[in-house]
Amino acid sequence: MTDILQKSNRFLRFKSSKGGGVCVVREIYRRETVPCQSSLCLNNCQESTEELHLLPREVTHYLMPDPAVARDYLEILEESSFTGIIFTQTTVHSVQHEGSRKLLSRLKNIVKDKRRRSIIFHNEFQTYAYCEREQGEILAVWQRRATFQCAEWFYNHLAGQMPIVMLTDDQQTCEEYGKKTVNVFVLTVEDYLNRFWKDISPGLMELYYSLKASVGRKSKGKEYSGYLPQDMLTAGLKSGKLIQGFLQVNRNNAFTEAFVRTSRQDMTEESSSDIFIYSSAARNRAVHGDLVVVEILPKSHWRGRSLIIKDEEGEGEDAAARKDDREDTTPALPTGQVVGIVQRNWKEYVATFAQDEETGSGDKKAGKVLVIPYDYRIPKIRISTRQMNALIDHRIVVRIDSWEIDSQYPNGHVVRSLGKRGDLETEIAAILIENSISVNQFSDAQMKEMPADTPERPWRMDESEVNKRRDLRDTHLVFSIDPKGCEDVDDTLSVRLLETGNIELGVHIADVSYYVRPDSLTDIEARERSTTVYLADRRYDMLPAILSANLCSLVSGVDRYAVSVIWELSPNYDVLDVWYGRTVIKSRYKLFYELAQAISEGLSSEEVVRNIPELQGITGQELVERIQELRTAIGYLMAISRHLKARRVRGGALELESVEVQVQLSETKSIEDLTPKEHLEIHDTVADCMIFANHWVAKKITESLPNQALLRHHPPPREEQFSNLKNCAATHGFDIKTKSNKDLAESLDKCVDPQDPVVNKLLRMLATQAMTNAEYFSTGSLSRDQFFHYGLALDLYTHFTSPIRRYADILVHRQLLSAVGEDNVKLPSNTELDDMSKHINQKHRAAQYAQRESQELFQCLFFKGRGGSDDDEHCIVDAIIYQIRANGLFVYVPRYGIKGPVYLRSKEGQVLYLQTNGSPEWTGGEISRTDQYITVTCLYGQKTYRLLDHITVKLTLLESWAHSSGLKLQLMSNSPHKSSQQEVKNLAKQQKAEIIKEVSSAAEDKRCMQMSHDLGPNFSELKKQYGQTPEEQSLYSLFESFRETALFSAR
């Protein structure tokens, strides 16, 4: 019978000497009668009849390693005990091109050794054993698939006489193909050795583990693919076959999971357009934040996100964890691989030398060493340095220079040292650099633009400027309501009853735009910073202190420039008229929230006078009238606020939970206490007036500048984001409706458990987590139906009320004044404003991250050295379960506002069970779960944990050498913590103040004990760049730091 040849073309892409792409076509001819080289063959297809050249009969199975096993574990296969090995042509090509010449020579020596009875089978020339690579298929995936197809062919060709064992080191391949064909087994190397060789040759297991460790350390860069030529990327993007987006690595599973997001607006949160990138190989040398081009893989290769709580400290994972990961994933997502880089996002990274020299030392003779970035999402970086011994325990700043295709890690260089890891100033500097926050002092040139206000040259208002403005100093009762001790007052209020019976409401904001002119040095610096950065123990201002803490602070008793919005309201609080413009004000009183609330509730006149310095010294009828005037004004404000809030709530406005902390300062400005902020109606009063002003300013600038107004947009969350909220609510019989913001708000109002007040708070926090982020945008860049603010239930919204600390508000002030004809400055175009809004959004997110990380730093430093005993009142706390995962729980600790994981299964596969005496024990067992509960089953019994259950956990410090430290939450009891409510309340009042005070004190003591030569040559420069704001300039910094703290702020 004549053998029929089948012809096909193989397209190979090569890089030319000029850097361009060259496509080469090679013809492949396949036929059916390729010799199988087995002595069991019934088709007589052998070219040689010599028995020693054929696969043996007497073995229990033939062994067929896939390319990765042949490359990484060839030393095992070289053991003389292994016979009957089939190396496919695909495997040989892989060893040749992805391995090395020496490795290929060793493989051929196995085949040449007649005692081994092993062969090379040309599967790519056999018609039915050949496996065509699918378009976009990852090379390693195709190689494993080709190996399995060859194994199947071999088994069928030999009429089932000999089982075939395919060896791989990919667990997914075992699951996908292991049960597909009877007697064609797909095993990992570890499973195979355990089943067949553990008792015969125990040393093989030790060799395997040694090789496995070596595989983890050696360069895997050879697995990376080259990027497609630019012309192919362009054509692919134009046709839609390729997709461009920003690579975002999953911080909680950085080794395996990443996403490509198609727009900057989606970069901080999940989007339905995300492309899932599974494994670092599929990232193809792209780094977090890079603008990349991806190719979508066939649906058969799509993967789901892991539901396992990951251990951040380990790059790899044990077998048990990988098995859990496969079994517990979300539904498959569109999955792709990176085929090109459009723009690198390389920046300065904080890094640390590996604590274990053998792990991180690299090639010491060449001065090359691997450093571990502070951010889990960034790969290790190979640098050249001769200072490793001196900097081994330092945080250093590095930059990436290149990432070659044949290197597992990128190459970089050291920029500078920040100081010893663990020192407070070093850790703060690391946080700032990681978030790309510049905190340099304002330059002399910028300060020269500022007005002077010194005892010798006191600042005075310009009479010509006053004449241009509406003067409210003698006609309006203007006052501020702020936190106690606050000194940067950027907003004030006024309210009065008009002769017509109508009510006049005014919101007056510091006129920062008067002092900061467009394109001045101060303006350019403020635009770059975009926001004041509040950390746990300090702040870094957007504007020089002469403005932020002096001339733009609307304190009582002094004349100030302002920009005002004044409404005339009917007795039913409908808006009859609104006026916008520049004003001159003189605040009469500087109130704090608790005092204003008490006045509204009938605080005695004596107490009012005692708490308001501005009233002291006034007597008689004038005092009575002024107190009554103030009472009336506060009453009007609260009545107006109730109406405004009710209107927004009817429209669907949400009340979400945030963590707010109140700082109490002594007369000497030292922190006396730091307590969870008690929510008062007056808080809503002030907030509603500010929201009202922001809304009406948005209406005015949108009307006047329809294509270039700066607004704030809050899109609705995706329905799937509410799944955890719904599961938690369902455990208490609550039904969360999410069809609209109104439905959600009404549902949350009904989720009240009289026996557990934490439930409603936690559900609102989960609703917060489901929200998307509000962002600034230019009206010319979005369609009109996208302008709305979901959380506030408003069609238009902007930021107008805080220009001291937000650059967006300065831009809005300029737009408003231009709209009313009071300023003739050049406004940014839509394109310019769109670019500015993206920059501002990025800076605001960075500031929020830095604020959160600094507070986590202080929490960790506070818990350092604590938790040694099981009765430490700081560490044994109550926690409430809010999420179920495959190997544990996520809990919320109300006392500290901390959220974190509690593991119920260890890496080794053991489960945690609490004995009858309360002691936790790790033992053999299993875990089962649903969306609402998780059950631990072992020999001792069974325990089920449900959403919103209270448990007791122990908090201890989980230190990290290279990364930021964290807190470990360990299960101590299945019941709520038994501390009395009064104990919890008292401790809650003290804990935040203790954290700041104790850590700051310890850091100061340490600095005082150090000799000057120990601070290093860069100390002065570092202190200048990263040192705390001088105390006299930061009396209110701690309050602002924590007042702004929130899990989410829709406004």
TrEMBL record:
<dbReference type="InterPro" id="IPR012340">
    <property type="entry name" value="NA-bd_OB-fold"/>
</dbReference>
<dbReference type="Pfam" id="PF17849">
    <property type="entry name" value="OB_Dis3"/>
</dbReference>
<keyword id="KW-0694">RNA-binding</keyword>
<keyword id="KW-0963">Cytoplasm</keyword>
<dbReference type="GO" id="GO:0010467">
    <property type="term" value="P:gene expression"/>
</dbReference>
<dbReference type="GO" id="GO:0019899">
    <property type="term" value="F:enzyme binding"/>
</dbReference>
<dbReference type="InterPro" id="IPR022966">
    <property type="entry name" value="RNase_II/R_CS"/>
</dbReference>
<comment type="similarity">
    <text>Belongs to the RNR ribonuclease family.</text>
</comment>
<dbReference type="InterPro" id="IPR033771">
    <property type="entry name" value="Rrp44_CSD1"/>
</dbReference>
<dbReference type="GO" id="GO:0008859">
    <property type="term" value="F:exoribonuclease II activity"/>
</dbReference>
<dbReference type="GO" id="GO:0003723">
    <property type="term" value="F:RNA binding"/>
</dbReference>
<dbReference type="Pfam" id="PF00773">
    <property type="entry name" value="RNB"/>
</dbReference>
<feature type="region of interest" description="Disordered">
    <location>
        <begin position="313"/>
        <end position="333"/>
    </location>
</feature>
<feature type="domain" description="RNB">
    <location>
        <begin position="469"/>
        <end position="822"/>
    </location>
</feature>
<dbReference type="GO" id="GO:0006402">
    <property type="term" value="P:mRNA catabolic process"/>
</dbReference>
<keyword id="KW-0271">Exosome</keyword>
<dbReference type="Pfam" id="PF17216">
    <property type="entry name" value="Rrp44_CSD1"/>
</dbReference>
<keyword id="KW-0540">Nuclease</keyword>
<dbReference type="InterPro" id="IPR001900">
    <property type="entry name" value="RNase_II/R"/>
</dbReference>
<dbReference type="GO" id="GO:0016075">
    <property type="term" value="P:rRNA catabolic process"/>
</dbReference>
<dbReference type="InterPro" id="IPR041505">
    <property type="entry name" value="Dis3_CSD2"/>
</dbReference>
<keyword id="KW-0378">Hydrolase</keyword>
<dbReference type="GO" id="GO:0000177">
    <property type="term" value="C:cytoplasmic exosome (RNase complex)"/>
</dbReference>
<feature type="compositionally biased region" description="Basic and acidic residues">
    <location>
        <begin position="319"/>
        <end position="329"/>
    </location>
</feature>
<protein>
    <recommendedName>
        <fullName>DIS3-like exonuclease 1</fullName>
        <ecNumber>3.1.13.1</ecNumber>
    </recommendedName>
</protein>
<keyword id="KW-0269">Exonuclease</keyword>
<keyword id="KW-0460">Magnesium</keyword>
<dbReference type="InterPro" id="IPR050180">
    <property type="entry name" value="RNR_Ribonuclease"/>
</dbReference>
